[in-house]
Amino acid sequence: MPAPQEDLPVQFRTIIRVEFCDTDMAGIVHFSNFYRYMERAEGQFFRSLGLTLVTRNEDGSAVGWPRVSSSCSFKAPTSYDDELDVAISVYRIGVKSLTMRFEFSRGDTLIAKGQLKTAYCLFKPGEPIQALEIPESWSRMIQDARADSTAS
Q1: Which of 21, 61, 104, 144 is a Cys-bridge partner for 124, taking CB atoms 3.0 to 4.6 Å apart?
Q2: What is the pLDDT of residues 66-117, one digit of tens each?
Q3: Could you give the 3-state DSSP secondary structure of residue 82?
Q4: In the chain, where the domains are located
Q5: C-alpha angle with apex 66: 99 to 110, nearest 5 degrees?
Q6: Dist CA 121 CA 139 (whole Å)
Q7: 41-45: long-range contacts at Cβ-Cβ below 8 A with a sequence spacing of 24 or more?
Q8: CA 99 – CA 113 distance, rounded (Å)
Q9: Architecture field, domain 12-54+70-117+137-151
Q10: From CA 111, how far away is CA 72, in angstroms rounded?
């Protein structure tokens, strides 16, 4: 993840409750769950815009957003039944990729910071994955969410 995260406008917020199965023997959330939390929040963000992470086509192909890279740094522990506020900021919208940053907090305590870079791709059975240009309408909706967040 790039060095200091500059202040980006928050485009979407959601709450994720820590479940018992998310914790390790010490009762602390296992680090790997933050990647699942990022994906869960990402899906909620897309749905809030009327978009989807995967579109399945009748010919057996699909269009979706595989991960190009991901990272997460941990600042404080969190435990079973905690409610985590997850804030998503779109860091970059490229021609074929989208980079989002995630900030997890519990009250005033910063728990973790993460980043996902995804690419918009076509999956056809038996063929290599093909990167596609993000549809203009989708880029516009994501950009509009970014503009709306700076106006409020």
Answers
A1: 61
A2: 999 999 999 999 999 999 999 999 999 999 999 999 999 999 999 999 999 9
A3: coil
A4: 12-54+70-117+137-151
A5: 45
A6: 15
A7: 41/12, 41/14, 41/16, 41/86, 41/88, 41/102, 42/88, 42/100, 42/116, 44/12, 44/14, 45/11, 45/12, 45/14, 45/88, 45/100
A8: 14
A9: Roll (3.10)
A10: 11
Would residue 126 be called left, alpha or beta, if left means φ above 0 and alpha means ψ between -120 and 50 degrees? Answer: left
Which residue do the tokens 């740094």 mark?
73
Burial state string for 81-95 with b = 16 or more CB within 10 A and e = fewer than 16: ebebebbbbbbebee
Question: Considering the chain, what is the average pLDDT of its residues?
Answer: 92
